Amino acid sequence: MQEEGIEKRTCIRFQIPGATVRYQFKEHVEEFSPLVDISRGGLKFIGKKPPEMNAEVTLNISIPGERIPFTMHGKVRWLSYVEDKDQYFIGLQFNPYGEKDKENYPGNMVKIIALEQKYAVKERVKTEKFEID
């Protein structure tokens, strides 16, 4: 039996300062949406118009200092409206990595792991330093 309140995610979520998302579903395209956090399995970003739950979404993720954004495909798994800002937090689960249509390029997993090592380690060191001070 699964206990309630236990975190189901096994991937480390981390933030990348200044990263943005361009997302597209049906005919709607939105650019420069702030990336809140990302992991190997998905991400959370801020958008003005949300896709429907379980909608297929294509994302271009831009990382500061990198010349070319990378493309990911996924499904909307949760939405949260922020009333005072008239925007949404959008949670997306990535499609599997592979070579088939709408699967994510396996090299993107390597890229996300490298970003995780770069940014998640910095966040842990910052947190540990804060706890010591």
Give a written overview of the molecule.
The protein is an alpha+beta fold and 133 residues long. It has one domain (20-132): Thrombin, subunit H. It is 20% helix and 38% strand. It is built from one helix and six strands. It has one helix at residues 106-132, and strands spanning 20-25, 28-38, 42-47, 56-62, 70-82, 87-94. Strands 1-2-3-6-5-4 form a six-stranded antiparallel beta barrel. Strand 5 and strand 6 (87-94) form a beta hairpin. The longest helix is centred in the C-terminal third of the chain and has 27 residues, at 106-132. The chain is globular, with a radius of gyration of 16 Å. 17% of the residues are buried. The model is unreliable at 127-133 (pLDDT under 50).
Key words describing this protein structure:
133 residues; alpha+beta; Thrombin, subunit H; six-stranded antiparallel barrel; 1 helix; 6 strands; globular; disordered C terminus
By CATH's scheme, which homologous superfamily applies?
A: predicted glycosyltransferase like domains
**What's the shape?**
globular
Q: Given this structure, which CATH class is correct?
A: Mainly Beta
Q: What is the total domain count?
A: 1
Mean pLDDT reading = 87
Rg calc: 16 Å
**What series of H and E elements makes up the topology?**
EEEEEEH
CATH architecture: Beta Barrel
Please report the number of helical segments.
1
Short description:
The protein is built from one helix and six strands; from the N terminus they run E-E-E-E-E-E-H. With 133 residues, the chain is α+β, with helices and mostly antiparallel strands.
